[in-house]
């Protein structure tokens, strides 16, 4: 046993950039438990907050929202005690499904920062702004609870607050209000339909689709939540979330130079569906484990604007020119991505980003190293120096990509042009790992579990290297990494001087 949290076999699987069903389920379960603890912490922080920050009326409203979640869950009995929180047990699908949705994580983090008075950049939030932003955050929790209750078939009426002219009801859809600011909307759910009422506008009636998972309305102001079909037959659909207000938050992103979120139009949705429809077969081409881990861990995709070529991030080297993607540690299960140009680009994006999600989840279960945050390492996929943890993250994801493209190149069903492209991609990622792995291996900051994990990564790289790419692809990859290193040394020397 390497760690009390994780068996040696599980760590071996992860070190080989894989993970069997039990290991993946363990990562997911641990993240879900952390989410529930985070929510409990946020609720308790609201309860104990100073009345100047969180008035008693706000706390009372939050209790009502929690009671509505319990009603959706079938565990509550109404409004709850006026002085204490309702029961903590949320067991059923409708409520738990909403609380474990990836983008509820950023919401909870935002609440806790505001209750603490600390902004994302570490500065103190001015008191008036703090109260205003916290009110917005807690208003969104009302929408989360209302959506869960509506989905569960609970009848109720509640007054909600739209944000910047949009009332987002997670998993259901969004209403564009007649007012452009934070507008009040009354929601009534009864007999299989929702009615949204606002002043100076006609009521918007929303009904359920035949499958009870989609909504529709004759009103142009309503946009139904978008989903992509399950990757496997009968599998759970994946949300294509382009309206949740917590889907992007600047400095919290793993890649801070990502483009911003967008609302998907008909043409973009068609491109998403086209790429998505071919993703499962391509993931399977690169190994069954790649498909299995995406199915196990991906719950929502957040569409980003397609960046101009000059703004492509380091991730674009994986996704293709004019593309970007990223993950958020606090939004486990979500991948942010610009519109994928091809199924192959989307498959590579998912392989890359799911590795980051796996590694982040692993890092929260087990301490892998004690290295500091000093940015001094060369990463052959970035132009700037990286801290040790970021380098370890990057090596892990690029090692998985090297495996993915090698398997694609060796598949019997691949056309010659696709095979050549796969070998080129494999060769580049293989060479990138070769260049960065020695720095990871040489560190004395690794803990015993971290050392074991890195040893397994080296073992995986050795296995891949036993079947090298064609000479031309290998030489081109070596030249690419050499150019990256020389440019990095030249730029870093100028900065240091």
User: What's the number of extended β-strand segments?
Assistant: 13
- Fraction of residues in H or I helices: 40-55%
Biggest sheet, strands in spatial order? 1-4-5-6-7
Helix run count: 15
Distance between the termini: 47 Å
> What is the CA-atom radius of gyration, in angstroms?
24 Å
Q: Largest sheet, described in full? A: 5 strands, antiparallel
The structural class is alpha+beta
Content of β-strand: 5-15%
Let me know the average pLDDT.
Answer: 89
Unreliable stretches: 76-88, 250-254, 310-319
The string of secondary-structure elements, in order, is HHHHHHEEEEEEEEEEHHHEHEEHHHHH
Question: Per the principal axes of the C-alpha atoms, what is the gross shape?
Answer: globular
């Amino acid at each position: 046993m390497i760690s009390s949290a994780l068996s040696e076999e599980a760590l071996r699987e992860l070190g080989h950039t894989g993970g069997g069903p039990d290991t993946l389920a363990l990562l997911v379960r641990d993240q879900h438990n952390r989410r529930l603890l985070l929510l409990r912490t946020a609720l308790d922080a609201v309860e104990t907050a100073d009345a100047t920050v969180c008035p008693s009326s706000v706390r009372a409203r939050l209790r009502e929202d929690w009671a509505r979640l319990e009603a959706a869950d079938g565990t509550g009995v109404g409004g709850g005690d006026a002085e204490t929180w309702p029961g903590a047990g949320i067991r059923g699908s409708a409520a738990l499904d909403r609380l474990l949705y990836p983008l509820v994580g950023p919401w909870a983090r935002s609440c806790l920062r505001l209750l603490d008075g600390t902004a994302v950049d570490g500065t103190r939030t001015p008191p008036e702004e703090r109260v205003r932003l916290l009110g917005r955050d807690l208003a969104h929790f009302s929408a989360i609870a209302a959506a869960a209750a509506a989905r569960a078939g609970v009848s109720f009426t509640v007054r909600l607050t739209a944000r910047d002219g949009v009332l987002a009801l997670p998993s259901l859809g969004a209403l564009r209000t007649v007012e452009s600011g934070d507008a009040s909307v009354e929601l009534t759910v009864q007999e299989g339909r929702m009615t949204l009422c606002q002043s100076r506008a006609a009521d918007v009636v929303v009904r359920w689709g035949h499958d009870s998972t989609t909504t529709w309305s004759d009103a142009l102001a309503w946009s139904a939540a978008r989903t992509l079909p399950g990757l496997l037959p009968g599998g759970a659909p994946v949300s294509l979330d382009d309206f949740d207000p917590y889907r992007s938050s600047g400095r919290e992103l793993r890649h801070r130079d990502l483009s911003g979120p967008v609302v998907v139009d008909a043409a973009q949705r068609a491109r998403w569906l086209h790429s998505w429809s071919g993703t499962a077969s391509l993931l399977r081409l690169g190994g069954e484990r790649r498909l299995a881990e995406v199915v196990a861990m991906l719950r929502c995709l957040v569409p980003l604007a397609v960046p101009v070529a000059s703004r492509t991030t380091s991730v674009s080297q994986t996704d293709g020119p004019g593309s970007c993607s990223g993950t958020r540690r606090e939004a486990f299960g979500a991948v942010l991505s610009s519109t994928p140009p091809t199924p192959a680009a989307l498959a590579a994006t998912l392989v890359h980003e799911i590795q980051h999600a796996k590694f982040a989840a692993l890092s929260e279960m087990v301490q892998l190293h004690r290295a500091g945050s000093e940015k001094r390492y060369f990463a052959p996929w970035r132009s700037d120096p990286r801290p040790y943890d970021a380098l370890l993250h990057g090596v892990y994801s690029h090692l998985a990509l090297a495996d993915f493209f090698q398997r694609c190149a060796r598949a019997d069903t691949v056309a010659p042009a696709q095979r050549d492209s796969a070998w080129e991609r494999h060769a580049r990622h293989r060479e990138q790992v070769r260049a960065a792995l020695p720095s990871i291996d040489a560190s004395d900051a690794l803990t015993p579990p971290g050392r074991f994990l890195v040893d397994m990564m080296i073992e995986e790289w050795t296995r891949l290297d036993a079947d090298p790419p064609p000479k031309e692809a290998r030489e081109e990859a070596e030249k690419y990494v050499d150019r990256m290193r020389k440019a990095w040394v030249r730029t870093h020397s100028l900065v240091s001087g």
